[in-house]
Design a protein that fits this description.
Length: about 160
């Protein structure tokens, strides 16, 4: 009984592994992946494969160049580098990871963390410099005490 269950689990795992591996086997999936990592050069601000301008002067030409680069057998990174060299770095929807472009991925998080630490340090310095800690009660300050309460009660009576 145990061997039959183990055999079924192994078959199920093999089918799942085969399905995962075959998901990327379609040739157009690579075209879609790379095409969605670039912007159209016409200035519309849309992704290359989603540019919907009627008579766009750039998208058809760029899509043809993308098909030619993929058919030539270039890697995704080399294709993106080729387009960046031809049209400029603004053609990329996101910076390519690697080299100096890592700064574009790391800098925002580093600035956020440094700002958070800096604000914490500044608050700590302010509290240490003041030299005194004023306790705050939930009822508010006790200015005048009972005399003030009695005066307020008298003034608000009908």
């Amino acid at each position: 009984m145990f061997r039959l269950g183990l055999k079924r689990w192994l078959h199920a795992c093999a089918v799942c592994l085969l399905a995962v591996v075959m998901l990327g086997a379609e040739p157009s999936s690579r075209f879609n992946k790379v095409g969605h990592q670039m912007m159209c050069a016409c200035g519309c601000g849309q992704v290359l494969l989603e540019c919907n301008h009627v008579g766009c002067p750039d998208s058809d030409r760029m899509i043809g160049e993308l098909r030619a680069q993929i058919n030539a057998g270039g890697t995704d990174t080399s294709i993106l580098n080729w387009f960046a060299a031809k049209y400029g770095a603004t053609i990329l929807a996101a910076p390519i990871r690697g080299g100096f472009d890592n700064v574009a991925w790391i800098a925002p998080m580093a600035v956020f963390l440094l700002a958070t630490v800096g604000v914490g340090f500044l608050i700590r310095m302010w509290t240490l410099r003041s030299g005194r800690h004023v306790p705050v009660s939930a009822a508010g300050p006790d200015v005048g005490g009972n005399e003030l309460r009695e005066r307020i009660r008298r003034e608000t009576e009908y």
